[in-house]
Amino acid sequence: MNKQYFEKLNTEKLAEFNKHNELQKVELGLVDDFEKAFEKTLDADTKVSTNLIDDLRKAEVEYNKIEENYKKVVKLGDDLQASAKDLGIELPKEILNKIQSAEVGTKEVAQYVSKIKSMYNIF
Predict the structure, then answer these.
(1) Where are the domains of the chain?
(2) In this predicted structure, what is the pLDDT of residue 66?
């Protein structure tokens, strides 16, 4: 009877040991799954952030060019108005409206650039 008892005890201990090892394998598998999912998500996050920063920089550069062009247009408009005044003629409303639009455009584009620069702080 002692032999049977010890065989049964050994079988139970072996089963418990195997169960414990399987549990560890499952836990290690979950850790691996977590690590892979985390790295994949982090890589995607970094890629999106990098692309966004690159796009913001491109937009900032383009808006700076547009702002400079608006300033040139406003200067030309001021010169045009001064010349028209010297000649004693009035500029057509269409031209005056475009000069005004260029002035507004200059301010709006400056605000866009300012907002873009503030977005860099997010990253």
Answers:
(1) 2-120
(2) 98
> Nearest-5° angle of CA 111, CA 74, CA 86?
155
d(CA 101, CA 79): 16
Q: How far is CA 77 from CA 40, 104, 115, in A?
A: 55, 13, 27
List CB contacts of 61: < 8 A, sequence separation 6 or more. none
> Which residues make Cβ contacts (< 8 Å) with residue 64, sequence separation at least 6?
113
Specify the pTM. 0.67
Q: Tens of pLDDT along 33-42?
A: 899 999 999 9
Q: What is the mean pLDDT of residues 85-107?
A: 96
Selection from 50, 46, 58, 60 nearest residue 117 by Cα? 60
